[in-house]
Amino acid sequence: MTDEAPRDRPAGPFPETFASLDHVQQDGLGDMDPERFRAAAHAVVDAMADYLAGVEERAVLPAIEPGTIRQVLPAAAPDDPQPLGTILADVERLVVPNATHWQHPGFLAYFATTASSAGILGEMWTAVLGQNPMLWRTSPIGTELEQVVVGWLRAALGLPATFDGLLTDTASTSTLIAIAAAREAAGLRAAAAGLGAGAGGRTPLVYASTEAHSSIEKACMTLGLGRSALRRVPADGDYALRPDLLAEAIAADRAAGGIPVAIVATIGTTSSTSVDPIAPIAEIAAREGIWLHVDAAYAGAVAIVPPRRGPFEGWERADSIVVNPHKWLFTPLDASLFLSRRMDGVRAAFSLVPEYLRTLDQERPVHDFAEYQPQLGRRMRALKLWMQLRYFGLAGMRRRIDAHCRLAEELAAAVDAEPDFERLAPVPFSTVCLRWRPSALAGREDEPAVRVRLDAANERLMAAVNATGEVFLSHTRLHDRFAIRVAIGNLRTEGRHVERAWELLRREARTLEA
Amino acid sequence: MTDEAPRDRPAGPFPETFASLDHVQQDGLGDMDPERFRAAAHAVVDAMADYLAGVEERAVLPAIEPGTIRQVLPAAAPDDPQPLGTILADVERLVVPNATHWQHPGFLAYFATTASSAGILGEMWTAVLGQNPMLWRTSPIGTELEQVVVGWLRAALGLPATFDGLLTDTASTSTLIAIAAAREAAGLRAAAAGLGAGAGGRTPLVYASTEAHSSIEKACMTLGLGRSALRRVPADGDYALRPDLLAEAIAADRAAGGIPVAIVATIGTTSSTSVDPIAPIAEIAAREGIWLHVDAAYAGAVAIVPPRRGPFEGWERADSIVVNPHKWLFTPLDASLFLSRRMDGVRAAFSLVPEYLRTLDQERPVHDFAEYQPQLGRRMRALKLWMQLRYFGLAGMRRRIDAHCRLAEELAAAVDAEPDFERLAPVPFSTVCLRWRPSALAGREDEPAVRVRLDAANERLMAAVNATGEVFLSHTRLHDRFAIRVAIGNLRTEGRHVERAWELLRREARTLEA
Q1: Which of A46, A382, B198, B206 is at 20 to 30 A from A365, Cα to Cα?
Q2: Which of these CATH numbers, 3.10.450.50, 3.40.50.300, 3.90.1150.170, 3.30.70.360, describes B37-61+100-115+393-514?
Q3: Which chain A residue has the Cα nearest residue B271?
Q4: Per-residue pLDDT tens for B464-482?
């Protein structure tokens, strides 16, 4: 039909160093020759393994200022192909040193995301297979493996088989799906008629605690409910939502003509990992007929450890739940698990099947995941989870999560025993919130000048600890106090790393005092 | 701080076959030993290269019925770790044969997504680095490389530097971002106050042609505008939006108190790859003060080929544009490019910075991508694009895209010359819509019985061609006729594959006739 330029072929046995890849040129059509890909990918694997073996020697945070990298890169893409060896060398020269090392065992900031090695092998296969499980048809294995893995995780979390779900990119999307489904379940007909007409002039409302994650507020923005739709119910002294105030808020809003759409309760808030009391909240949700979504994006992993399931009591009564495998289940980003007892409601919020996506020739009904999410296309996220869950086994996952919880408990005890530091929140999982509070200032914390001084001192302390490069801590505010978070959850974190973080905190505090 | 179980170490030099990996056990804490990862990843690379080398020998669609795979898999995750060799062997035994082979050069359905080999190398690095460029801080390289690659693509597409943007997962998300920004730009204050209060009782409206993609309708559902907010403006005989009818619809809606929020024009619709006339539509958008979003998710790739830029005339006047590198720019799923001249408007729709994400110690202002999208977390998508654009060079990308267009033009000519087939739409890019219409029925196409017969015959014909496994075609309806689409866009597709598809269509048609 047409004459194509010949593809270049390898001349013979192919050496595997980067320099020798420099003769790889790509001046025809089509893709790289598979044998050249093989050689290049072997070289990349060696560099990847070296990276993992040596990641601890690096500073967790790269010591660069914003804009530095952009300045050294050309402003336009090259016209001519560049040698593969040069490109791969540039990854090692330019990319790796300027990464924030989420794989570093000293990564104790935010909540960790680790890419386990078994998960990385899964991502490698995922990349080469290029599956798009939007329809069963477009990826039978991607679709069915996702159904299987969702079932595996659901059971491992101790939830009944009435829950089904899907894998999304992030908790933001999972929570958005939940609130969208709640919106339909509340009778708003938002998907069909929009919130203006569907709500009939009344205001749809979403309830969460003052400690709940920003993704809930963002979902309200995106879904057209608006930030103002989010009612922030006060938390108690331990940062847990107060069910009595929740019930009061709902009653007052109903009296004022509002439409309660969803309650989002959190097991493991981002600031302090506090736990909302799910059972009484579920009671309120059931009584009021309001969709209950449980955000367990971080802490949900703990539910696979039966002796630690206390904080999860009652979550089986939720309408939907999010748990992020790419947080504390060590799965490469991205993978968020959305579960619901009401998948028909989710489908009502998102199903839309145009002719060009209609499947014609299957006799049995198929499960097309695109009908349950805002996007059409989607990555195959199940393979890496399937491989990793088998590699560790549930027992292995439990042992690792339990070990992180124990490390946090030990750190909490150490903080409690140290007169110059104080712990700022309970430690139900693997995160310790603390601050430096020299014993000389004990009892004077409420004086305005002392508050300001302690905030500034802790901000400096955290910066000093992070500047060592050995660990990376992040912060929050708790009861309007600057709090340093030590969040344990990286797969590679061992006792010695947490111990070192604690040493550095005390050491740098002494330096600042001096 | 705590005693940990020792990690297992390799006993010595590590063989590389799957069977020999069976002794890999993982009974301690932490991750796989890096040397074991190295050996396993080398084995996976060999299997990956073998897959790419042999993908053409496979049937594009696996010959299985829905539910088959689920039945053979255990209902629960294993408690004990399983040997890595077994897991990797299962990938080859169970996963690969049940994939729809998007990498197959005979994949001519929907729009192709190819994972180029250079892109796969990028995904491998992406997996091991585990970057989350939600904040500059959480991935300096992920953030700045994304800024660079967005600039490279913007320039390559011939768009002015007033456009900036980000990489999202899919065109669904990119279009949702556009309409969310448009909503704010129209003064609805949806992000803050919600669509009920913000719209003041008036109906927000979005305009697109009857041929526009379902993702626009889905974005309206998700954003709380509702399906009813989407005004489907009729297309002309060539499936292109009629600007005169667009202007009429806007005027009528304004008169009725509606609020026009956005116009979505498409360059390369999904059914027929038709082109909406952007210049007159941009004129209307400017006159009316309505946000113009251009959906060029598929065809946008062609804009990197200057001699083929005709259909894009005027798109530089759009407020936002989506082009999907994971479609016709051969980038592994997922990667969608969102561009806008009004990034401040995008930020207004999505920015939300809680304390625990506030960056404290940088003096220069930073660009945090999470402020421009519905999600907080995000994968590093720039690395694979950066590597791939350098590997092919823009000239190489242009040559490949141009070759696909030429193949489609040649197929279109062949269809036109064949009395028993007819072409159902113009071919501005790389997709040919056709149907079998035996010459004996020529001139009788409008008889109801003939219409039904032709629809059924073409549905059977497509099924028969797909059943060969050599190619995979999909369908749509054009002017209410069943249309078979031959969509060229896989990086590996050569002239012989398109020629073979055309042979199979004619051969199977003869069989069905017999």
Answers
A1: A382
A2: 3.90.1150.170
A3: A356
A4: 999 999 999 999 999 999 9
